[in-house]
Amino acid sequence: MLTQYSNTAQVLTSVAEVVSEGRRASESSRNDALKMLQEALELFQRCLTVQEFQFTESQERMEMTDETPPTAELDDGDENGGFHNSSESTEDERWASVYEPVTKDTLVDTAVAQLETLTTACGFLTSDPGSGLAWVEEYSNNLLRGKIAAYVQGTDRHHEVDLARANFICALADTNFRTGRIDVNTYLEEMTSAFDTKLDLSQDPQGL
User: Fold this and answer.
1) SS3 readout for the chain
2) CA–CA dist 47, 2 (Å, integer)
3) pLDDT at residue 12 tops 80
4) Taking the CA atoms of the chain, what radius of gyration do you get in angstroms?
5) What is the pLDDT of residues 42-70, one digit of tens each?
6) Which candidate, 56, 65, 13, 72, places its Cα nearest to that of 37?
7) Nearest to 65 by CA among 109, 98, 101, 91
8) Distance between CA 38 and CA 9 in Å, rounded?
9) Among 140, 135, 121, which Cα is nearest to 30's?
10) What is the spatial distance between Cα 9 and Cα 206, in angstroms, rounded to a whole number?
11) What is the distance between the alpha carbons of residues 73 and 58, in angstroms, rounded to a whole number?
């Protein structure tokens, strides 16, 4: 189910970009694209909520395992010498083949996808921002200020996260400037602060 949520959200994001391509895209197409992006964000959020729950559960299980000394128990009455029969083994293997533990990298994947979708959404809010910018800012606030910083700790994904964050901040600043919500000085400050000295783009052609 989580994979379905994530895949559907990615498809919606891609379709939104396609239907609104070009400067001459109709207002109707842009509105449709924005609705798709909002739906994609809802799906990503559902996925992330479940992933957070599963990650917490797995961490608790690991802690319990660490606290419990390992024991080896054999059932003397088992004619197979304590081993599971073939049908049980097959069931275990089938379950193991479809279960993927949720890690911090999994959480980072979903959070980065959300930031990229928000970045795309900013481009559709320049003509009539209305309440659109408000929900983009509200949605991103919790993600940027708390969640994603916690997810990335202990991983090697800091550069990827910093780049996604910087791209979003720039896209939001650009939209705020084009719609008259901020002046040119604030705009320049936002753009400069997005790509601070911690973000090294020398080895990242995509970032440049």
Assistant:
1) CHHHHHHHHHHHHHHHHHHCCCCCCCHHHHHHHHHHHHHHHHHHHHHHHHHHHHHHHHHHHHHHHHHCCCCCCCCCCCCCCCCCCHHHHHHHHHHHHHCCCCCHHHHHHHHHHHHHHHHHHHCCCCCCCCCHHHHHHHHHHHHHHHHHHHHHCCCCCHHHHHHHHHHHHHHHHHHHHHCCCCCHHHHHHHHHHHCCCCCCCCCCCCCC
2) 6
3) yes
4) 23
5) 999 999 999 999 999 988 888 887 665 55
6) 13
7) 101
8) 9
9) 121
10) 23
11) 24
Which residue in this structure is represented by tokens 């109707």?
Answer: 28
Confidence of residue 107 (pLDDT cuts 50, 70, 90): very high
More confident residue, 154 or 93: 154
pTM here? 0.76
The answer to whether residues 164 and 115 touch, using CB atoms and an 8 Å cutoff, is yes
Asked if 6 and 110 touch (Cβ cutoff 8 Å), the reply is yes
* Residue whose structure tokens are 């990335």: 152
pLDDT at 199 over 90: no
In degrees, rounded to 5, the angle at the alpha carbon of residue 15 between the alpha carbons of residues 47 and 207 is: 75
d(CA 186, CA 125): 19
The model's confidence at residue 109, banded by pLDDT at 50, 70 and 90, is: very high
